[in-house]
């Protein structure tokens, strides 16, 4: 499997330059420039602490022991990916979509950006809401596998990026914090009863990432397929 991947897309469905790197359990980063490797490494080290803190907090909110999510997702060996995005100014793009609507696999996603504006989330009423992320703030969103684990109690958010008449390039870094690749994720018994039958089938994180024929590093969601398969 590739540990670092780069691509550029410029068409009606997507306008972005994109670098994906596997950052945990082993940290991979292009060696040049040094500052990039060190800065991203430092940031991710801090984010790992945030991840463990969030896992404790959500476990407690769900009425479990603090270690519940860290154990269920085997976070010590969690598969994390950093996705570095560069969106062109809207005048240089081939349409208004930076990144088409999707959800992100994993436990949660953290996001930082250089300029505000562009990220939108779909509300439960079906409206696109612009996400305002104040300066020096880390945005946290829920991933598919927290939705699966909790049988839909927590929802993975549908989001997209629009170019929004951007005058300057927008740079963002999304990090997908996932379970370990061998973790079998399924709705846990605590979230299942007669009025809440399991809504998702279970499978390992690795299999779910490859489910639609992608490679692990593509980190494409397969949540839709998880739900579809149940109704077959
Ligand atoms: O650039 C953004 O604001 C979001 C990026 C994103 O959703 C992704 O890379 O999965
Ligand atoms: Fe995303």
UniProtKB/TrEMBL annotation:
InterPro entries for this protein: IPNS-like_FE2OG_OXY (IPR044861), IPNS-like_sf (IPR027443), Oxoglu/Fe-dep_dioxygenase_dom (IPR005123), Plant_2OG-oxidoreductases (IPR050295)
Keywords in alphabetical order: Iron, Metal-binding, Oxidoreductase
Domain Fe2OG dioxygenase: 78-179
Alphabetized PANTHER family for the sequence: OXOGLUTARATE/IRON-DEPENDENT DIOXYGENASE (PTHR47991)
Family statement drawn from the similarity comment of this UniProt entry: Belongs to the iron/ascorbate-dependent oxidoreductase family.
Name of the protein this chain belongs to: Fe2OG dioxygenase domain-containing protein
